[in-house]
Write a structure and sequence with these properties.
The complex is a heterotrimer of chains A (307), B (375) and C (376). By secondary structure, chain A is mainly alpha-helical. Chain A has a single domain, classed as Orthogonal Bundle (ABC transporter involved in vitamin B12 uptake, BtuC), CATH 1.10.3470. Chain A is globular. Chain A is 73% helix and 4% strand. Chain A has a two-stranded antiparallel ribbon with strand order 1-4. Chain A has a two-stranded antiparallel ribbon with strand order 2-3. Chain A contains eleven helices and four strands, in the order H-H-H-H-E-E-E-H-H-H-H-E-H-H-H. Chain B is mostly helical. Chain B has 15 helices and six strands. In chain B, the strands form three sheets. Chain B has a two-stranded antiparallel sheet with strand order 1-2. Chain C is elongated and about 70 Å long. The longest helix of chain C has 20 residues. In chain C, a hairpin with a 2-residue loop joins strand 2 and strand 3. With 376 residues, chain C is α/β, with parallel strands linked by helices. In chain C, the strands form three sheets. In chain C, strands 8-7-9-10-11-14-15 form a seven-stranded mixed beta sheet. In chain C, strands 2-3-1-4-5-6 form a six-stranded mixed beta sheet, sandwiched between helices. Chain C has a two-stranded antiparallel ribbon with strand order 12-13. The chains are: A mainly alpha (307), B mainly alpha (375), C alpha/beta (376). At the A-B interface, helix 4, helix 9 and helix 11 of A face helix 5, helix 10, helix 13 and helix 15 of B.
């Protein structure tokens, strides 16, 4: 029983990380119907920038949490600028181009970011400095750490904040209008370019936070850490219903738990026929199944598919 | 075949034939010229360039003709390669000849193409990209793990000692003795690959000019209109997947036989993206452009090799790894081409006119049409 | 343009050759990843070989009475199987007399076929996959204990610690090959692994498989993979409250491993083929000479150094650099090198290769015991 509980906790933590990244995908998709392939790389940039800042702060003697906050703020700032630039350079000129075009640039941007990071930070894994006291709490035989609790808290706050932003603020109303019909929103006085740029900036800032949390939790950062993470987060967004903010979180948590329970029990359930080597397949299978049978996801509205 | 030539040359029949004869002679002599001038290594690189031309032409059917963005193309390449490896190596002790295996590889890969295509047909472009990417990864993960409980693929170790292609009972990899001249292994493979590449080009050209080819283009440009014109989009799309996959399957078989060793690390997502880059950079949908893209991107990493020593002599140290630069250039190429030259480096004249019309009014009209179509 | 460049190079080479016309030039190829994630290890190999070549040339070597000078031709295989065959082809065509390399088994195996077709002997200083020497080629040799030898050592050590052993591998050619040998060695000692779990060389989250293993109450967890995954795994073992010993192969027996996971690595045990440098017969002296020219030894330099020496020795005994003549002598090698006693078995594998186990003590690797090899 304690093992099952532990697996569920493991899944929730992993799922919270997926959820944080998925929020970025879902926002951009909601407004532009574009898969921002580069979002996973933004998360990576956030993590590596934060690690560089932490390395710079190493000798200052500041308390650990303060250093972490500074590093996170710098990472958010860098990622916001990066998100803005990507939107401006790679996506905006193609907004009216055939569908294939922005998708190919998105892949291109993702490769460029990854390789730039590799040239700047090198190919080696970068260690997260031991600035945080890791507290381990026992819970009915299972364990949970303070960093893990922080991850859950940030994911929850991020979701609530975004929902409030979209539903209650002026910018949020403009976003919803733009998502519904860009041309009409423009005619109604919404500065569409600004709204889209703001979406990218907010998504990137959240991505940076996710990146910092991931590197703090796993203790490492690496130029290639964003790609698979991005794919899984995208799967989470699709599972929850892409464009839907609570859906992204629900999808992330579900995917995390499925992966965790799957990898933990598949070997014993199938008598060793299948094993934990198929952990990465679950996400892809879910993605394919959802897209085929319920493209609108769990919480998405059924909309007619526009070809 | 005529469309391979610039328009200005097409009226004069004699000139056309003279050009073809010259081209044929050049292609026949190329390995010897390259061997003499730059060494046999470059003949091997030439072999790989031809292999990638076949792969890129296959992907071009899916992406260029039918407009379906396939990010998992390497899966078919892998299926072809592993099929050959499993049926012609000591792994199971089977040693089927290549003239059985290459068509079989094409057929099985084509079947996989249909299996993959069938559930994804209703999906839009961007979802399709993600799903095909997922399929590509699933295939790779299975290849990597199917060594237990039954050892089918030998897992991460890969399959070794794959039979070389045999001609008249003699392995091609050891070279051919033709009496008057002896061909080395890489030379012999060059001619085999060249023959198959020409066959591929021929098939691709015939497809392009056929009813099917026009149907693909119709789907690419406007699926709703295509349906209205009475095109069975489901079958036509499936056919695109199957045809593209078949080329990939043959390419995989040749890779297996030429290398003598296959392992899952040759079939990563990056390989898919590289083949996609060849198609996109060269000119989606334009066969000569795609050939150019494939040759250029195969040669590029080899030329980048000289950048390391060059930096060494200029700055006294290697500032940027050539292999780091390779993927960076691919990525930037994809972005820049999409932004400034979406028709590719060597586009078909028709497509270039579509995307760069003489009058700005036409351009605006075209853009608006596309925008409306995409909504 | 290309042709012109080659002509200029040709003229330059010709001018260079006449300068030392009295000596015959014998060229030896070296292939390793010089760019990419393993570039530092590739350079290590290249430098080890360079040192050997320089030292040999300083002795005014003769082959069959004819004065010769050795030259090392270094090529980058990018740790990629396809590039490796291109490099191999380059070596065969340019008429090198022997090849030292490659680093990765995934590169060495496809390349070895090209070398065998071209009849060029190849010594890999550090490819450890068993399959490399088991292809029936008489041109392939290896100077390091292979995965079977290392896996046996890990299995032996794990079985000594406890009866409840879990194995995790990262599904790479290296990790899976090593894990299979560990399992084999465990079973040979009557220990049935309580779990065999899997991950990938790109994963960071191992909580699911570790929790599953925790439920089976392990004494030892053997991880067959690299340091970049081993480090977070060691951390996650801590937070999950797993007390079992963390045991791994040479992939985790690195300074990076300790740097990445800090105190979570304390008491972890890692194996490495070969003797520890300080125990190598010529280790201290070699380290001094190497440091003077190239700085710190990463890992493989002594093996590359000995590879060159063994190859040149075989040429000396044969009195010729002709591969067909000295290959048979190479197979008969029986000598003492920096890394210890060197002799090849019928497959071309190092006879009785040594494997050393190290443990992390106060943030540093320190040797615990050496299994096999000439130390006995």
């Amino acid at each position: 029983m304690d093992i099952l509980l532990q697996q569920i906790i493991n899944g929730l933590i992993l799922g919270s990380l997926y959820a944080l990244v998925a929020l970025g995908y879902t926002m951009v998709y909601g407004i532009l119907e574009l898969i921002n392939f580069a979002h996973g790389e933004i998360v990576m940039v956030g993590a590596l920038v934060a690690l560089a800042v932490l390395a710079g702060l190493a000798g200052t003697g500041l308390p650990g949490p303060v250093m972490l906050v500074i590093a996170t703020l710098v990472a958010m700032a860098v990622c916001m600028v990066a998100g803005l630039l990507i939107e401006r350079i790679a996506y905006r000129p193609l907004r009216t181009a055939p569908r294939l075009a922005p998708l190919i640039t998105a892949i291109g941007v993702s490769i460029v970011l990854q390789n730039l990071a590799m040239i700047i930070w090198g190919r080696q894994y970068i260690a997260f400095p031991p600035i945080l006291d890791i507290q381990i709490y026992e819970l009915a035989g299972a364990t949970i750490t303070n960093i893990q609790l922080l991850i859950v808290a940030v994911a929850t706050l991020g979701m609530i904040g975004l929902v409030l932003l979209v539903n209650r603020s002026r910018l949020g109303r403009a976003m919803r209008a733009t998502a519904q019909n860009r041309d009409v929103a423009g005619l109604m006085g919404v500065d569409v370019n600004r709204v889209i740029a703001a979406t990218f900036v907010i998504g990137s800032a959240l991505g940076a936070v996710a990146g910092v949390l991931i590197s703090a939790y796993y203790g490492i950062g690496h130029y290639a850490m964003g790609f698979i993470l991005g794919l899984k987060a995208f799967t989470a967004a699709v599972l929850g219903g892409i464009g839907n903010i609570p859906g992204a979180v629900l999808g992330g948590l579900l995917l995390g738990i499925i992966e965790s329970l799957g990898a933990g029990y598949i070997g014993d359930l199938t008598g060793g026929f299948l094993g934990s080597h198929y952990q990465d397949i679950f996400a892809f299978f879910i993605l394919i199944l959802v897209l085929i049978f319920r493209p609108s996801g769990l919480l998405g509205e059924q909309v007619a598919d526009r070809a | 075949m005529l469309s391979l030539l610039p328009e200005s040359l097409r009226h004069d029949r004699r000139l056309v034939w003279a050009t073809y004869a010259g081209l044929a002679l050049l292609l026949c002599l190329l390995p010897f010229l390259v061997d003499a001038g730059m060494g046999r290594t470059w003949v091997r690189i030439l072999d790989f360039a031809l292999l990638y031309v076949m792969l890129a032409l296959g992907l071009n059917i899916v992406v260029g003709f039918a407009g379906l963005l396939d990010l998992g193309y390497v899966a078919f390449y892998a299926v072809g390669a592993y099929l050959y490896a499993i049926l012609a190596s000591p792994h199971f002790g089977l040693h089927l000849p290549f003239w059985v295996l290459l068509p079989l590889g094409a057929a099985i890969a084509g079947l996989f193409g249909m299996l993959l295509g069938a559930p994804t047909l209703r999906l839009r472009g961007d979802y399709l990209a993600i799903v095909t990417l997922g399929f590509g990864e699933i295939i790779r993960i299975f290849l990597n793990n199917l060594n237990a409980p039954v050892n089918i693929t030998n897992g991460p170790q890969g399959i070794n000692l794959i039979d070389p292609i045999q001609v008249a009972g003699l392995p091609l990899s050891k070279g051919l003795d033709l009496g008057i001249l002896t061909l080395s292994g890489v030379h012999a493979h060059y001619y085999l690959f060249l023959t198959l590449t020409l066959l591929t080009i021929f098939i691709a050209l015939r497809l392009q000019d056929s009813r099917i080819g026009r149907a693909w283009v119709a789907i690419r440009e406007d699926e709703v209109a295509a349906v209205a014109m009475g095109i069975n989009t489901r079958n036509i799309k499936l056919l695109a997947f199957a045809m593209g996959a078949m080329f990939g399957g043959v390419g995989g078989g040749l890779f297996s036989a030429f290398q003598g060793f296959v392992s899952p690390e040759s079939f990563t997502l990056m390989e898919s993206i590289m083949i996609l880059s060849m198609v996109v950079l060269g000119g989606m949908g334009h066969i000569p452009g795609v050939i150019l893209g494939a040759v250029a991107l195969t040669l590029l990493p080899e030329l980048l090799r000289y950048i390391g020593p060059l930096q060494q002599s200029l700055f006294g140290r290697v500032a940027v790894d050539p292999s780091d630069l390779r993927m960076l250039l691919f990525g930037m190429g994809l972005v820049l081409v999409m932004l400034f030259r979406p028709e590719g480096l060597w586009p078909s004249p028709k497509r270039a006119r579509e995307l760069h019309p003489d009058s700005p009014d036409v351009s605006r009209q075209e853009q608006e049409d596309l925008y409306d179509a995409s909504r | 343009m290309k042709m012109r460049l080659h002509m200029i190079l040709g003229v330059a080479l010709a001018a260079f050759a006449t300068a030392s016309a009295a000596e015959e030039l014998v060229r030896i190829g070296l292939a390793a990843p010089l760019t990419g994630p393993q570039a530092h290890l590739g350079q290590d190999i290249a430098n080890g070989a360079r040192l050997a070549i320089e030292e040999i040339n300083a002795t005014q070597p003769k082959l069959g009475g004819q004065p010769v000078r050795f030259e090392l031709v270094v090529e980058d295989d990018q740790a990629d199987p396809r590039t490796a065959t291109v490099v191999a082809q380059k070596f065969v065509d340019s008429g090198v007399k022997g090849v030292i390399g490659h680093l990765n088994s995934g590169a060495s195996i496809p390349a070895s076929r090209v070398y065998n077709d071209g009849r060029v002997p190849q010594i890999s200083p550090c490819s450890t996959a068993v399959a490399y020497t088991h292809q029936g080629f008489d041109t392939t040799f290896r100077l390091m204990a292979n995965d079977a030898q290392q896996g046996a050592a890990l299995g032996e050590y794990a079985a000594k610690i406890g009866k409840r052993v879990a194995v995790v591998d990262d599904r790479t050619a290296y990790g899976q090959g090593l894990a299979d040998e560990v399992v084999k060695a465990l079973k040979a000692r009557g220990v049935e692994p309580i779990a065999h779990e899997f991950t990938t060389d790109k994963s960071t989250d191992f909580t699911a498989i570790l929790t599953s293993i925790k439920g089976k109450k392990p004494d030892v967890i053997v991880y067959c993979g690299m340091d970049a995954q081993g480090a977070p795994m060691a951390r996650q073992m801590r937070t999950l409250g797993i007390k079992a010993l963390f045991l791994g192969g040479d992939g985790i027996q690195t300074a990076e491993f300790i740097k990445l996971a800090g105190t979570a690595t304390e008491n972890a045990v890692g194996s490495s083929p070969g003797l520890p440098l300080e125990k190598m017969p010529g280790g201290a002296d070699f380290e001094k000479r190497f440091a003077a020219k190239y700085g710190k030894i990463q890992l493989y330099a002594p093996f590359a150094y000995d590879s060159v020496r063994v190859m040149v020795d075989a040429m000396r005994r044969a009195g010729s650099a002709d591969p067909e003549k000295y290959r048979a002598e190479l197979a008969k090698t029986d000598t003492k090198g920096v890394v210890g006693h060197i002799a090849f078995d019928a497959m071309g594998d190092l006879k009785d290769g040594a494997v050393t186990l190290y443990q992390v003590k106060e943030g540093k690797w320190s040797a615990v015991e050496t299994l096999g090899g000439s130390s006995r």
